[in-house]
Amino acid sequence: MSSHSVTSRTFDRNARAALADTQLRGALRHATSLFGERRLAAIGTVDDWEGLRTRAREIKDRTLAQLDRYLEEFADNAERAGARVHWARDGEEACAIIGQIARERGVRTVVKSKSMASEEIHLNAALARLGIEPIETDLGEYIIQLAGETPSHIVVPAIHKTKRQIAELFVEKLGIPPSDDVATLTEAARAALRQRFAQADMGISGVNFGVAETGTILILENEGNARLTTSLPPVHAALMGIEKVIPSFQDLDVFLKLLPRSGTGQLLTAYQSLITGTRRAPGDEGPEELHIVLMDNGRSRVLAHPTTRQSLACIRCGACLNACPVYQQVGGHAYGSVYPGPIGAVISPQLFGLENSSQLPYASSLCGACRDVCPVKIDIPELLLHLRSQVVEGDDAPQAKPLERLSFAAYATLMERPALLRVATGVGRLAQRLLGIRERVGKQGGVTARLAPPLGAWTAWRDLRPLAPRSFRDIWRTELRDAPPPQRIPAGVATRADRSGGDGS
Amino acid sequence: MTRNEEARRSVLAAIRRRLAESAPHDAAHAQRHQPPTPADRGMSLPVLNGAAPSTSVAVEPLPRDPLERFRYRLEAVAGTFTLVRGSDALVAELERILRSAGARRVAVSEAAEIRAVVEGACERAGAELIIDASPRDLFDCDVGISTAQWAIAETGTLVLESRLERHRFVSLIPRVHIALLRADRVCETLGDALQRVRAGAAEGEVPSAAITLITGPSRTSDIELTLAIGVHGPQELHVVVVEPGDATMPDATANPTHSQPDGLT
Q1: What is the pLDDT of residues A253-264, one digit of tens each?
Q2: Pairing mode of beta strands B150-152, B128-130
Q3: Is A215 part of the contact surface with chain B (CB cutoff 8 Å)?
Q4: Which ipTM value was assigned to this complex?
Q5: Is A258:A52 a contact under the CB 8 Å cutoff?
Q6: How far apart are the first and last CA of chain B?
Q7: Which B-chain residues 203-262 have CB contacts (< 8 A) with chain A?
Q8: pLDDT tens for each residue of B38-81
Q9: Nearest to residue A110, comparing CAs of A193, A238, A200, A194?
């Protein structure tokens, strides 16, 4: 799955490869069901989960509607507390800013805590070009960095790797004796990374929330590596997407209730670091310099419509990944983007261009499970449809567009003209009888016959339903219109619909 | 204009321009996304996979007393809890933990009031006490002892504020962290605790430079979702709670230079 040809342009091929990987699918099944159960147990500890979600969304909507104002307030307060705030229009500029800070301070070793925003802008590669070696310190990120791979889950980056693969990796890279004991492997990583923390000249982190009222940044984690990253080295640079700002300190209560419960099923993660500026007295712990990089990188563009704007409410909990029947089968790498799963399928095309991700809005059955679990009530199916319409209307439509146009034009013509529809269905019924197609054929009681290409693309995965022997209009006209109202069907009597196994469309 | 000023203006201008573009669509969207009325709910499809009502989960009855509830939640995340009264009992309890941890080198925060207690305990447990340990020293310590300013009953969480506990590394770097907490510093909820740390900063003042919330020892599930305790932070977290009114226990929230909230839980 770490193949370099995996891009978001080739979701169909990536997904097929992932489906053939039984080890991956086993790991995914285990992880997503476990997270699903834990999440349900954790949200049961909140009296009014629905109300909490509604409040969170209201806070996000209110903030995004006046994002300029709240960002200015955040930046001013952070600077008043001693932080330096940098503004970056895109990823390249953000990388340049952080590179510049590192150069000015003569930084050689950088420790990093998990940050999806830094993955988004390929910060590690940018720093490597400056001769700086950033060390990922989150255990999962460390594992995939050693393996030269990319994260496959927002919360558990190495979800796709078995402990055996990790053991082999550690034997090779860390020189430890072989072991498949998780505690031993964890201990080996701890020991190796302690060295790095002790040497580091600079720490780089992401930001979960930025509080406008106080200029505070908040980072959640379980391992303690983010605490070390943000407080041990003399310089701390925090990369923050502009959508991370929330108005008040008290709003943290809402989001700290939602995020850990949705993400890992915890009431709180082991550590929250609330950082407001730099240390106040010489003997205090904490970095001498705090740099906060406020990054746009396509986010402001998404504000231009309320449907797309809601994707900026995302708090990166990963609940939609675990709930998604597509993600559950194919995993994160198939999406070919740093943001996988349902939220990735809407964020990636918006931030990185639809032309690079035109398959992603189709990586969904629109079942709505993602919307149901989203702690900030993002209507992901609505967004997916919105993006699909853009794919179809755009110049980069992937499939045979003229044919699709023609088919839908023909469909529209028929549907708008009842007389024509009657004639056409009559012809269809006749053809059906002549070809001997009966009703009960195929998996769902339809016809499994493959149509010729290009219509075969439809029948490859679905049964084609035969036309009913008589149309409802006909039955209505000849039998039902003047008949007495039907009796209610007593309970326990099987109806035709029951026997035929439903719709099958 | 510097690059940063230029970028600031440019980002803010882009935000304003896009929000203005959105304005004509906003009302229609808001109407479509009205919260459902009870009538709508009656007609809506069953919710899949998710936002299930809390009744679907059997919830154990929680202790009514906030301190007991804190204990319940702390123990659920693999922390230990002991309640002591009097300085002798405190020294004895610290000695017990130091012995069971096999402590050789112990680092302590500088809070002068607790130093006497910790010194006594280290002496009895035969451990070396490291005063003013640098981070490098801390890498060689087995145990770190700090105060905690607040605790949260709802989640089993400790709150350390840099304004009042300057030494948070002792709570992070050694294998074992022992936190001393006053029994009357337990907040009911996370919201209450946030309110208190916010109020702790005087009017117009910023909150502590670093506020650390600690819920149990360091943990990870990054390898096959198997829980491993103690990855970068401590493997053990012991909370020793001291009954209020005990002269030997410092007021960990007190700081003569700052105003204090009153009316505590």
Answers
A1: 999 999 999 999
A2: unpaired
A3: yes
A4: 0.88
A5: yes
A6: 52
A7: 206-226, 228, 230-234
A8: 555 544 444 444 444 444 444 567 888 999 999 999 999 999 99
A9: A200
